[in-house]
Design a protein that fits this description.
It comes from Litorivita pollutaquae. Belongs to the ABC transporter superfamily. Keywords: ATP-binding, Cell membrane, Membrane, Nucleotide-binding, Transport. This is ABC transporter ATP-binding protein. There is one protein chain. By secondary structure, the chain is an alpha+beta fold. It folds into two domains: 4-240, Rossmann fold, CATH 3.40.50.300; 247-358, Beta Barrel (OB fold (Dihydrolipoamide Acetyltransferase, E2P)), CATH 2.40.50.140. It has helices spanning 48-56, 98-108, 113-127, 142-154, 173-190, 201-207, 225-230, 235-240, and strands at 4-11, 25-32, 37-41, 63-68, 71-72, 83-86, 161-165, 194-198, 210-215, 218-223, 247-250, 252-260, 263-271, 278-282, 287-290, 295-296, 298-304, 308-315, 318-325, 336-339, 345-348, 351-352, 357-358. Helix 2 packs across helix 3. The longest helix is centred in the middle third of the chain and has 18 residues, at 173-190.
Length: 360
């Protein structure tokens, strides 16, 4: 297990980068705590896999250092970093049995045969492959082979970190939840430092202690699922986390009031002078339709998703989403929308503005 330090780390795939825009991974300075489980979450091309490959040693960064437990491993080869990595598509030895595939990392290190047998049995049970331990990997389905890859990554107990690069892509949807649960159980039992790359917010939020949200090559927020939901530090976090994501409206902010399209909205806190592109963000869960108060809203359609209704609407030409209860009636006279003041965040140039104090 290891604390992982990213020190002034950045990477460009161009030979002579001239500006920040030339960097696929923009400058990072972070300490990731020993023994925690992290998910790198973001859209395709945001830098997740680039960062993971730098941590694993598959890629040398253009600048900066990476340290394991304060030891500089920036130029150390992958074999010397004592990590296990599971890739998006299965990597298995087709001519070996499932048992031998799982045992391979332990045999390579000369572990005691009795320990190897016990550990392989334990991992096989975890990934649901006890009944095929004696079968050759050749001929197994893609998701079965990926389970072998996952098992081989998890079989060692002494690694500095376990790295997963979208490992459930080829797994049957029914198995995904079970394997995520098993990975979380493994983490709680053995306390490995785990880093899990995904573009799926459900995978990230159910697996990780801390979610590292990436956007345009930079980390925009590291936090617990609760923190990402309640206080998105960047508008992208608000948009990417949640279904639907956070509503963002252009506004002017003065003191404890926001002005949207000429209408006033009470905020739950006081703010100082705000300049630049100012917006307010509020999640659909904290909006309510009304017949008498709030901002004028134009309802475009209502989607019943079973446990609640999603109202697709417009406020002063801006699209917003409103979540209503499954049993809540939406009548024709509901032409206004209100926001929970305590749940409104203020953004300047896409970054959250810290309030100066709580409104009375």
């Amino acid at each position: 297990m290891a604390k992982i330090t990213l020190d002034n780390l950045a990477h460009s795939y161009l030979p002579n980068p001239q500006s920040e825009e030339d960097f696929a991974l923009k400058e990072l300075n972070h300490d990731w705590v020993d023994g925690e489980a992290y998910a790198l979450l973001g859209a395709s091309g945001c830098g997740k896999s680039t960062l993971l490959n730098i941590i694993s040693g598959l890629l040398q960064p253009s600048q900066g250092r990476i340290l394991f437990n304060d030891v500089d491993v920036t130029h150390a080869p992958t074999a010397e970093r004592n990590i296990a990595q599971v890739f998006q598509f299965p990597v298995v030895y087709d001519t070996m049995t499932v048992r031998d595939n799982l045992a391979f990392p332990l045999k390579n290190r000369g572990e005691d045969p009795a320990y190897i047998a016990s550990r392989v049995q334990q991992i096989a049970q975890m990934i649901g492959m006890e009944d095929v331990l004696g079968r050759k990997a050749r001929g197994l389905t893609a998701d079965a082979k990926q389970k072998i890859s996952l098992g081989r990554g998890m079989v060692r107990e002494d690694v500095n970190a376990l790295l997963f690069d979208e490992p459930l892509t080829v797994i049957d949807p029914h198995m995904k939840w079970e394997l995520r649960t098993q990975l979380k159980s493994l983490h709680h039992e053995f306390g490995h430092t785990m880093i899990y790359v995904t573009h799926d917010q459900t995978e990230a939020l159910t697996f990780a202690d801390k979610v590292v949200v990436m956007y345009d090559g930079r980390v925009v927020q590291i936090g617990t699922p609760e923190e990402l939901f309640a206080r998105p530090e960047h508008t992208f976090v608000g948009y990417f986390i949640g279904s639907p994501g956070m509503n963002v409206l252009p506004a002017q902010v003065s003191g404890a009031m926001a002005h949207v399209g000429g209408a006033e909205i009470a905020l739950g806190a006081f703010y100082g002078a705000t300049e630049g592109k100012i917006e307010i963000g509020v999640r659909p869960e904290f909006t309510r339709l009304s017949a008498r108060e709030g901002l004028p809203v134009n309802i475009r359609r209502v989607e019943d998703v079973g446990r609640h209704k999603i109202v697709r609407a417009e406020v002063f030409g801006n699209e917003i989403n409103i979540i209503s209860g499954e049993d809540e009636e939406i009548s024709a006279d509901m032409t206004r929308v209100t926001f929970d003041a305590a749940a409104i965040n203020v953004y300047r140039n896409d970054w959250r503005v810290a309030p100066l104090g709580v409104a009375a």
